[in-house]
Write a sequence for this structure.
């Protein structure tokens, strides 16, 4: 165990990101759900607005925790074709699961943001936050979707992830902050004392707190 909970992890990351405090035209994007809790602590410490960027993992048949790909809210789709072939996953399954995850993205966007627009990212300093990285598939899909909007700078901030995934993701962003990148890695939750499910209500509550602060 490395962190008590997501809030503690967020405060520790905020300490590493202190040089960005009060940076103009900056936004913190949490990957729901857990990444929003971590991101809230960072946004609060750096004096930045907080929003969400929703990306969903495409899980393997009979093993939903194993990512065979991911889809982002702008439709960016990443598939691990090598893994798909190795597992013998059908194209029909990939298409059906992709559509299902897109529907869940739309549901969550309506739940978290209501009628509000997605944030404009062009020309901004974006700090993308999650509560941890496993395979990196979901994170990579999010990075590619955010980069397509041409931010001025993209920083990925995560408390923990396996060394190979972290080094691979480092090539995709302008800067990467990771507090712990072990070679032997089982699951993100193994590095937290408390790693309970974050609810939609908690995500909405944190976003509301941030909006009220900025209004």
């Amino acid at each position: 165990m490395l962190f008590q909970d997501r809030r503690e992890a967020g405060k520790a990351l905020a300490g590493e990101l202190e040089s960005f405090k009060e940076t103009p035209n900056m936004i913190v994007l949490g990957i729901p759900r857990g990444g929003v809790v971590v991101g809230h602590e960072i946004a609060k410490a750096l004096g930045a607005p907080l929003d969400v960027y929703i990306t969903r993992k495409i899980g393997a048949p009979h093993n939903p925790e194993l990512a065979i790909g991911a889809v982002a809210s702008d439709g960016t789709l990443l598939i691990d074709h090598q893994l798909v072939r190795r597992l013998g996953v059908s194209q029909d399954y990939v298409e059906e699961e992709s559509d299902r995850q897109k529907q869940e993205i739309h549901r969550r966007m309506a739940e978290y943001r209501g009628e509000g627009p997605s944030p404009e990212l062009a020309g901004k300093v974006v700090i993308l936050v999650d509560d941890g990285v496993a395979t990196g598939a979901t994170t990579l899909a999010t990075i590619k979707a955010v980069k397509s909007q041409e931010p001025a700078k993209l920083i990925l901030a995560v408390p923990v992830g396996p060394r190979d995934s972290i080094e691979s993701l480092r090539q995709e962003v302008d800067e990467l902050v990771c507090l712990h990148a072990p070679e032997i890695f089982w699951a993100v939750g193994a590095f937290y004392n408390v790693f309970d499910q974050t609810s939609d209500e908690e995500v909405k509550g944190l976003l509301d707190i941030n909006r009220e602060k900025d209004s």
About this structure: The chain has a mean pLDDT of 92. The longest helix spans residues 91-113. The radius of gyration is 16 Å.
